[in-house]
């Protein structure tokens, strides 16, 4: 079979997409459910908030996506998700992008990358600026709780957050616990 034949066959093969005679998946409900699951697990594990760098965790918690593969290397995108309060998405390309809009994100801000590949010798300075901004959010929305769950954050960022007086923990615990129970929209997606 030639490449042209395979291409033609692929175009004729029915896809596993949603049909007009099936119940449509409510993606906004799915995003709200997932954010609610994350928040419930933050409370269950006594965290004020989580700071997410892993693109898969960001997508789960906020429903947003942007350059996920690139973000696996250069972490220029992160999300602050409090147990109670506004979700803040930080992105180096933070201009309003309709494809990345989500009702679960309350505010968008420019990201402060604190990785060597983007800051070089100024990484500690950048990490300090990022940590000060995150610590301010924790103070504003943590209700006195200084515990912050983090994922994939490099050592300069971790040290800077610790200098701000935050008690750091592993975000995989609340995030994986949140993912363990599927909502109706997630089941329909599967």
Give a description of the structure.
There is one protein chain. By secondary structure, the protein is of the alpha/beta class. Helices cover 46% and strands 14% of the residues. It is built from nine helices and six strands, in the order ααβααβββααβαβαα. β5, α7 and β6 form a beta-alpha-beta unit. Residues 7-15 have low confidence and may be disordered.
Write the layout of secondary structure elements.
Blueprint: H1 3-12, H2 27-44, E1 49-52, H3 55-62, H4 68-73, E2 77-82, E3 88-91, E4 107-110, H5 116-119, H6 123-141, E5 147-150, H7 155-163, E6 167-170, H8 172-179, H9 184-189
Parallel strand pairs: 1-5, 3-4, 5-6
Antiparallel strand pairs: 1-2, 2-3
Helix pairs in contact: 2-8, 6-7
**For this entry, what is the oligomeric state of its chains?**
single chain
Parts with pLDDT < 50 across at least 5 consecutive residues:
7-15
In angstroms, what separates the terminal alpha carbons? 32 Å
Structural class of the helix and strand makeup? alpha/beta
């Amino acid at each position: 079979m030639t490449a042209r034949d395979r291409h033609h066959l692929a175009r004729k093969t029915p896809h596993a997409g949603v049909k007009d005679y099936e119940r449509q998946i409510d993606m906004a409900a799915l995003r709200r459910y997932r954010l609610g699951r994350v928040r419930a697990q933050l409370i269950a594990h006594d965290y004020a908030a989580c700071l997410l760098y892993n693109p898969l965790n960001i997508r789960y918690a906020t429903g947003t996506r942007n350059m996920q593969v690139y973000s696996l290397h250069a972490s220029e995108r992160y999300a602050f998700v409090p147990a109670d309060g506004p979700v803040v998405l930080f992105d180096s390309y933070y201009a309003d992008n309709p494809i990345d809009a989500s009702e679960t994100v309350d505010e968008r801000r420019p990201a402060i990358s604190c990785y060597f590949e983007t800051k070089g010798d100024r990484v500690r300075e950048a990490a300090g600026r990022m940590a000060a901004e995150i610590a301010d959010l924790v103070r504003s929305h943590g209700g006195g709780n200084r515990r912050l769950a983090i994922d994939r954050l490099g050592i300069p960022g971790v040290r800077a957050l610790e200098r701000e007086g935050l008690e750091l923990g592993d975000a995989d615990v609340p995030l994986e616990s949140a993912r363990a129970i599927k909502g109706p929209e997630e089941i329909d997606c599967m």
